[in-house]
Design brief:
The structure holds two protein chains of two kinds. In chain A, helix 3 packs across helix 12 and helix 16 runs parallel beside helix 19. By secondary structure, chain A is α/β, with parallel strands linked by helices. In chain A, a hairpin with a 5-residue loop joins strand 5 and strand 6. Among the domains of chain A are: 259 residues, NagB/RpiA/CoA transferase-like (Rossmann fold, 3-Layer(aba) Sandwich), CATH 3.40.50.10420; 54 residues, no CATH class. The longest helix of chain A has 23 residues. Chain A has 23 helices and twelve strands. By secondary structure, chain B is α/β, with parallel strands linked by helices. In chain B, strand 7, helix 12 and strand 8 form a beta-alpha-beta unit. At the A-B interface, helix 1, helix 15, helix 18, helix 19 and helix 20 of A face helix 1, helix 2, helix 3, helix 4 and helix 8 of B.
């Protein structure tokens, strides 16, 4: 199902899609402006970032301890903890819980990890009806598409696209008018969804973090649908990867403060909800059963090497929002769940480099992702790590490899190098004539298809310098 | 070695050597005007970034060793490129995990390596240059210079002292032009979109010249500019600071040679 290996072809389609390009242009500007403003207004941003990073590094160095702590605290408050080695384990555990409760419908709050384990098709096969309740996720569920962004899953859709989808799918609820305003679309979605919240047997959410000290899980949403998902059904299942654990609720708040500003430019996300165990006597609401599925799915392997730094990621999406490659292609081109720079690092770790080798190469290493990452993840270095793996496993094309090898050989032999550059420069100057540039170079169509190649000015600097030229 | 005369080894960079010798001469002039003694070690070739960014660490290590050997005797190493200077300064020290002697030599080199314009401003405390340039320019912040070496204010400060020149900023000055070394030929369609966004932002300022501190970006921007038929000159910032902007711009016809 992943199409990451055909990234280049995917990206061409995306570049030719005018509507998508408009949506990406708007998104990019809005996200960059709002994050810049929100971070600029926070004098303690750098200190907070350093705290968060140190906290997360400490947790990763002591992960077993904090996970066990979380599990015992969660069980003490009446919750059930399940350990899932991989996606298949997690899917089975979730379906088993649903079946044991005789569930028919499952409401879901937006969760990238639900996408990672492809839970929806599995629940459908198992005879259940999964219902996405995050508005963006609901829209792409209607469209039968994957998310194109980790915090704004339907960012590639226009208002008109959404109106069309609602017209097509809401007729069964007696909604037959084509809507034109975003406000009325939200109202209609709210109305349609309300009955589903009430009817749902199981609510399935992700977690922005889980708290070792108290056994609580926490989500941050801007619509509040996540709260209805976890409070109304009789059973609440939380799906979280093992890297989500933090020592205390206060540590979680550090992450929430960074998350809101870098993800959406808000000071704080609208709804920040902690869930600790099932409903207790005297509680106004809450589920009868509370389950937490802790998923590894490749994280333990990442712990061993340089990719460990990637486990600090809090899924804020800032690296996508500031990436000029993501801005050009959108998220679907990346071909799997996680797009942009964080996806280019994470995807090879989770589905294999052989299925995703183009992704770590799809970067100019401009460094903007690392600069805006609130957790200080060195994304370009981690992409380079995958390129090194690709090189050492001989995965690149023979042409690329031979070209690189020839160039490296020359670069280590100054005399031969001088000669080759002198010769190459002469050929380029001869072909350019007095035009000062070339519009076609054999074997370099990647460059010349859309740009000219400026001609060398004259003999090389080193030759002129050797002859005594000084200006 | 006299304390009054800084001894500088100029790392010319492979793109300046081949495409734009003027930038090398401009660098020499600026450094000498600021009181430096400049030498150009003849065994230099390239900093090794093409291999480094393609994942070929063994070749990168070999190339880095020859650069360290060629330059470690100088008091300072200066390159007219944020990208190559960043390679020497930020990445060489990470290459020798298993070779402590080389790691130490790379660290020593890194500590005395600088990008040209920031070296003039930050180390030599140059505040003005004697140069003139007719017309408005816009400045593109090359990614490595900006984000690895904090080159941002220095070129703007020195440009402010050039007679007749004003800087009109484009609002995406800190956004990548889409060059990215081999990226531009691996993903030419994406690279084209990025450089087209860049040229559009430059053209929108009405400036007659765009300047930057890295030849990779400049070749990319100049190549797209001329393909789109815009009449905007593309130059390395050092050419203007060294008062050498009477020469034909990058990719411009040679018939205006002075």
């Amino acid at each position: 199902m992943a199409t990451s290996h055909t990234f280049r072809a995917n990206s061409r389609g995306a570049l030719d899609n005018a509507q998508l390009q408009r949506a990406l242009g708007n998104m990019h500007r809005d996200f960059v402006d709002s994050r810049g403003r929100a971070v600029g207004e926070m004098p303690e941003y750098d200190a907070l970032k350093a705290d968060a990073r140190a906290m997360k590094d400490h947790v990763l160095a002591n992960l077993d301890f904090y996970l066990e702590r979380f599990a015992s605290a969660c069980e003490q408050s009446g919750g059930h903890v399940h350990w899932a080695q991989d996606a298949a384990d997690a899917r089975r555990i979730i379906l088993d819980i649903c079946k044991s409760k005789g569930a028919r419908t499952v409401t879901k709050s937006k969760s990238m990890i639900g996408e990672e384990i492809a839970i929806n098709p599995y629940l459908e096969q198992g005879g259940l009806v999964p219902i996405e309740t995050d508005l963006g996720e609901y829209i792409i569920q209607l469209a039968d598409e994957p998310p194109s962004h980790i915090t704004a899953p339907a960012i590639h859709k226009s208002k008109e696209d959404v109106a069309e989808l609602f017209l097509e799918h809401h007729g069964v609820y007696g909604k037959t008018r084509r809507l034109t305003e975003i406000g009325e679309m939200c109202d209609e979605a709210r109305e349609v969804m309300r009955s589903k919240f009430i009817a749902a047997d199981v609510g399935l959410t992700g977690a922005n973090f889980i708290v070792a000290e108290t056994g609580a899980t926490a989500i941050a949403t801007n619509e509040g649908n996540g709260d209805l998902t976890q409070i109304l059904p009789k059973t609440h299942i939380v799906l979280a990867s093992i890297d989500k654990v933090v020592p205390t609720a206060e540590d979680g708040l550090t992450l929430l403060r960074l998350l809101a500003r870098t993800a959406s430019g808000l000071e704080l996300t609208t709804y920040n909800t902690f869930s600790t165990g099932p409903r207790r006597d005297g509680d106004a609401d809450g589920p009868e059963e509370f389950h937490v599925v802790l998923l590894d799915n490749g994280r333990s392997e990442m712990m061993a090497g340089p990719l460990r730094e990637m486990l600090r990621c809090i899924r804020c999406g800032a690296c996508l929002n500031h990436c000029p490659v993501y801005k050009a292609t959108g998220g679907h081109a990346y071909g799997w769940v996680y797009p942009g720079p964080m996806g280019a690092v994470l995807t090879p770790a989770l589905i294999g480099l052989e299925k995703s080798a183009p992704l770590p190469n799809a970067s100019t290493f401009c460094g903007r992702c690392e600069a805006v990452c609130p957790m200080g993840i060195p994304l370009p270095s981690l992409m380079r790590h995958w390129r090194e793996r690709e090189f050492s496993e001989h995965r690149q094309s023979m042409n690329a490899r031979n070209g690189l090898r020839a160039w490296s050989w020359l670069a280590r032999r100054p005399k031969m190098y001088r000669w080759a550059v002198r010769f190459g420069g002469r050929v380029l100057r001869h072909r350019a004539g007095r035009a000062g540039r070339l519009n076609r170079i054999p074997l370099a169509s990647g460059w010349t298809a859309a740009r000219d190649m400026p001609s060398p000015e004259g003999p090389t600097f080193m030759d002129q310098w050797k002859k005594g030229t000084r200006a | 070695m006299s304390k009054e005369t800084p001894q500088v080894g100029l790392f010319v960079t492979c793109l300046v050597d081949l495409f734009r010798p003027t930038v090398g001469f401009a660098a020499v002039k600026l450094l000498e005007d600021a009181g430096c003694n400049v030498e150009v070690p003849p065994t230099q070739t390239c900093c090794g970034q093409p291999a480094f960014n393609a994942g070929d660490r063994p070749s990168t290590v070999d190339i880095a060793k020859s650069v360290v050997t060629a330059f470690e005797s100088f008091e300072y190493v200066v390159a007219p490129s944020g990208s190559c200077a960043g390679m020497l300064k930020k990445h060489y020290p990470t290459l020798f995990e298993d070779e402590p002697v080389w790691a130490a030599r790379a660290e020593k080199l890194a500590a005395k390596c600088f990008e040209l314009v920031s070296f003039l401003s930050d180390v030599l405390k140059v505040e003005t240059v004697s140069a003139s340039h007719d017309g408005s320019v816009t400045y593109h912040d090359s990614c490595a210079g900006l984000r690895e070496l904090d080159v941002h204010d220095q070129p703007r400060q020195l440009l402010a002292s050039v007679t007749g020149l004003d800087v009109i900023e484009h609002d995406t000055a800190n956004v990548c032009c889409g060059f990215g070394g081999t990226f531009c030929v691996k993903y030419p369609e994406i690279s084209t979109r990025m450089v087209s966004d860049k040229t559009a932002a430059i053209v929108a300022t009405g400036a007659t010249t765009v300047l930057a501190g890295d030849m990779g970006c400049l070749l990319n921007i100049a190549g797209r500019m001329s393909r789109e038929g815009h009449d905007v000159s593309v130059r390395h910032v050092a050419e203007v600071l060294a008062d050498m902007s009477d020469r034909p711009a990058i990719g411009a016809p040679a018939d205006r040679r002075s």
